[in-house]
Fold each of these.
Amino acid sequence: MEIANTNTSTPTTDLAQKTVYPILFSIAFAHLLNDLLQAVIPAAYPILKDSYQLTFTQIGLITFAYQMAASILQPIVGLYTDKRPKPYSQIFGMVFTLSGIILLAYAASFPIIILSVVLVGIGSSIFHPEASRISFLASGGKRGLAQSIFQLGGNAGTAIGPLLVALIVVPNNQHYIIWFAIVAILAIFVLSKIAVWYQNHLILRAKKNVEIILPDLSQTKIVLSVAILLVLIFSKFFYTASISSYFTFYLMDKFQLSIQDAQFHLFLFLASCAVGTLIGGPLGDRFGRKYVIWFSVLGAAPFTLLLPYVDLFWTGILSVVIGMIISSAFPAILVYAQELLPKKLGMVSGLFYGFAFGMGGLGSALLGNLADHTSIDYVYHLCAYLPLIGCIALFLPNLKKKK
């Protein structure tokens, strides 16, 4: 290949080697807005449960419908955009989310609620693969840091969502969910600005063959490593589903808290997840992703095992500790997977985000049914053992690179 002239190669090299912080923080903010809208769904559960006399099984089915809509499509979207990147596709996805939020605000029956959350799930499935790719491309090699910044936005949005629902919707009624349409419109504006950079970046990359670094592993070891990572995703997101969907009910049942007080405790847990996410990526860059993955999943086990036996004060403390530890895993897991399969960034991102959503949805449905047949307290006794699965992270190989 001929060497391009200096004026052409310099911006391309800069894009490949320098961390583009304005884009990273912009896509993180878009992630915050997207996941804030997603968080409206579980945060509204107490209102929907009372208004329509829903069972825990039906609550679980709402989460299952949303998460499955998000999970099944994400790998497909990622695989498609690996071959044909679509810089403006995320705007299209946000239109789906906006439609779902509007429909949820005025849903008058269980089937309409299901339809509204499916629309939000479709929007999420379009957003995440390309957004994760953008953070990877803008990382300048600091992939753990970039993924943490990106996911920090998502976790912050997930934490803020219940707080805003408690302030805006709970004192009024379900129709006040319509105010969150403003968030979706703001997200469309932000994503339109990011899309311009992404399109220009793709044009510049097309002018130069960008070197892709492959892991020095056999295909069998790569497949086995991906399987181990997916099992860890199952452990993490099955447990976090018990918190995000049912923690408010657990606190209201065990400690007789009001909806707003219980939502505040949920906010503390989700905020701690945001902090853990920010920490996990840079620690993986510095010490190795395998060790961060191992600690963040298995390290939460002593605290999850203790949680069902403590009073309200220590429940709050332990939930924060659990959130910080267990949430530090996902940035390291996703970047580790991207480094296993660097030629398939969209497919990998879609697979792992999709599987995470799927496990969260399946966990919520199964745990809701279990709560109906036993008790919400029993659910937390059983889920306490899930982080012990993290011991299989010891079998992940240390990644060494080859060209």
Amino acid sequence: MTQQKKLWAALLLTGIVGGVVGMVLTELMHFIQHHAYGYAAFRANGTPISFREGAEQAAPLRRLAVLAGCGVAVGCGWWALQRFGRPLVSIQTALKRPLAGLPFGETVCHALLQIITVALGSPLGREVAPREMSSAFASLWIKRLGLDEDSARLLIACASGAGLAAVYNVPLAGTLFVLETLLGVWTQQAVAAALLTSVLATAVARLGLGDVQQYPLPELAVNQALLWWAAAAGPLLGGAAILFQRTAKPFPLLKRDNIRMVPLALAAFVAIGFISMFVPEILGNGKAGNQLVFAGLIDWQGSLTLTALKWAAVLLALAAGAYGGLITPSMMLGSTLAFASAALWNTFLPHMPSETAAVVGATVFLGVSMNMPLTAVVFILELTRAPAALLMPLCAGMATAVAAEKAWKNRQSA
């Protein structure tokens, strides 16, 4: 079998495995959430109950107890994994040395720990777990098929994108994530491979999860004032995203193989649990806050409060050594900031829809903080299934934000 035939066979298998991984991890997360917080999956009329609603219905002391348990899982789990397992390999590191791949057993345990802790209320995202587990499976057949370095790199990147696409039901965003963020190349082969694996993974995941719209929203209004607000708010949201990057950079406080990580993690997550007794919307990956502002179920004061408390909760989790993604937490920080700024705009300037502004803010903050502006735009459109008319405000906000970010970085390096 030629190198090309081996590569495309591996890509086909990777797409299927990525879909299964996304489906299984999603079901596991929901199972743990329902039992930890004591709520049913569906109402009597058959509509699903969201994690936000389930956490809000749980008693405050139950939320505190669950987060304390989450702290024990974070501290003991990652300490044991670092102390007794082989060194973990990030996807970025694996892309630099693709023939070495990722250690399979340790990566699977690492991914399961992420899903378990996010299900218990860790304020970090869930997307890194399916990305890493899919890449670990792809690593199994790199040597067996005798792939060369370039083919192995493409396979690992596509596996990562497939995991993202499957867990969020975003095939095109998963494709762009591979090309823009992981590989940084747009060759015909890379585009075809990324499309194949992300679309196939999404199709497989839909067999078990259905064609789920992550954020079912009322029809989003778009007007001219929104376009001007997006262009004006872009640099401010981009600046906030840069600040978020910098505040998260020093963490964790201790190396994860240090036994003192266990009490540190317990203390940090008890603190998060205490906050959640009063503001349960900070729990989980950030979807709860997005749901509130996208649907206009909160005022601007509450939105700013959520921004501050979610930011603090994410930093506490990172300081304690927890792993997880930052995609949805970044979205929540951007959406809540944008919702509040829209209220200020509407006080003095032509009115525009605050809920739609929140969607734009989530996109801009995500694009800048994760260095993936194109992926962020498509990701939000697929998550919300927003109308095409929203593209112009999204692009205007992203353009001014990225321009301001580049100008700031150039000034810093001058």
Amino acid sequence: MASEDILQELVKTAVPLTGVITLSTAHMTQADSELLAHLSLSQRASHNAAQWGEEEWVIDREYGFIVQLTQREKRLETLLKAGISAALYHVLDTVTKDTGIAFVSFDCDERILTTLPVFDW
């Protein structure tokens, strides 16, 4: 296969780039943090495609989390059923709706946005 053909095939099958935003973990409750840590472990342990799909999309990091919302509505609904707070739902919904952002990274050292709910824990 010629390199031009390979390039064309890559372009046809490439995953589109999606945006990322990094927010402070102060934009979630402590209970949300504990729940996301639990969900991350559950995904790794179970690999239950019926519940989680084929990929991990709640990723626990040393100082926060990454939540992948490429299947936005389905994953927000799953998080709500799992018990995230209305405030965290609002944050995730607000920053991903109509923005092209599909990855929300939470880090304890990131700056706090005054337009989003803030929790001191």
Amino acid sequence: MSLPLSQSTKTGYNVWEVRKDFPILSREVHGKPLVYLDNGASAQKPQAVIDAITRAYGHEYANVHRGLHYLSNTATDNFEAAREKVRAFLNASSAEEIVFTRSSTEAINTVAYGLGDEIGEGDEIILSIMEHHSNIVPWHFLRERKGAVIKWAPVDEDGVLEVQAVSDLVTDRTKVIAITHMSNVTGTVVPVKAICAMARERGIKVLLDGSQAAVHMPVDVQDIGCDYYVFTGHKLYGPSGIGALYGTAEALDRLQPFNGGGEMIKDVFEDRVTYADPPHRFEAGTPPIVQAIGLGAAIDYVEGLGREAIAAHEHELKEYAQKRLTEINSLRIFGNAKEKGAIFSFEIEGVHAHDISMVIDREGVAVRAGTHCAQPLLARYGVTSTCRASFGLYNTTDEVDVLVDALQKAVRLFG
């Protein structure tokens, strides 16, 4: 297969060589080559990550922080080395600002629960209408249990969220702004740095959901100026069961612990307990040791390819996919912001998203169909489900063509 100019000499990024690192991409589905376009839900794993996990379980496994023997020391060193890799990945100022969690979901819950004592009846939490349910439900807990008020920042028809739309909602009762960095439905990139600057002037804490953004673009939390930033490993070509919460030293210190147990305490007495300093205060019990090591390997892999190179490759994929998808007259794309990632949610007139997904699956194409855990946003667009094709560092323009051909087949079938 010839290498398209846009994926070789123009950027220096050889996607065909990258694809060789992912064993699953060589398989067939229904007798057709797999075209995996469900990266927004979960990405595939390179051999380097698989090997790191196998090595950790097969040759270096022990519990961490508690033992003095060789294997425990080795596992602890590897576990904490992964924390340092996350620190560097986000450009946090200290490894103590990185908390390992099971997922972005747990990280957001950790913050929402931890701030609960500071939020009372009538206090306000600002969300955008684009949020994933994981960045909605934990704040509804505070609405239900504390009497907090949730306010929603709107987006326009193109999926653009303006800073002013957030600022207009702020009052002297606003305590938290919790907002996505990149929409998992439209791919919209939110101007988070400007939002954080506005919030900082008014003494408001900001949590950013980086579950998508951390995969597709460089992230510098110090430059952004957020209080909290979360992302998850399984979308970043790493294992499931691992995520990370960044918080400034001050922001983490103000949180009450979410889980209680071993590791998160200093001392336990019959009548009282004292808590460990962050990050261990939020890592009760045996942590996801091997998963963290796998995440570290995934970060090494991504950094080895170069995040700017990946972003450039995905930008070209986005531009090509936008052009090809708009050739289908009955197809409507939701979200056409100028600043967006290679994520396309769409509908085809008169055809249910599930039917589209099933038809193109027979052509080997894997996409997501449903609400994408973002029902408020779909309601804003007046739909109950869409298809979503989400691209990653190993996808190609050839795969875009396969997707479009499969969608055209679905149009003919249901037309």
